[in-house]
Amino acid sequence: MKKNILVIYYSQTGQLEEIVRNIARPFESKKEEYDITYYNIQLKEDFPFPWPGDVFFNTFPESYLQIPREIIPPSEEVLSKKYDLILFGYQVWYLTPSIPIISFLKSGYAEEILKDTPVVTISATRNMWMLSQEKLKVYLKNLQAKLVGNIALVDRHDNYTSVLTILRWLTTGQKEKSGMLPAAGVSDEEIAGSVKYGDIIEKHFRSNDMSHLQPDLVKNGAIEIRPFLVRVEKVGNKIFTVWSNLIINKKEKRPLLIKFFKVYLMTAIWIISPIVLVLHLLTTPIFWVKRQKQKRYLQGINLK
Ligand SMILES: Cc1cc2nc3c(=O)[nH]c(=O)nc-3n(C[C@H](O)[C@H](O)[C@H](O)COP(=O)(O)O)c2cc1C
Question: Is 3-225 a domain of CATH 2.120.10.30?
Answer without folding.
Answer: no
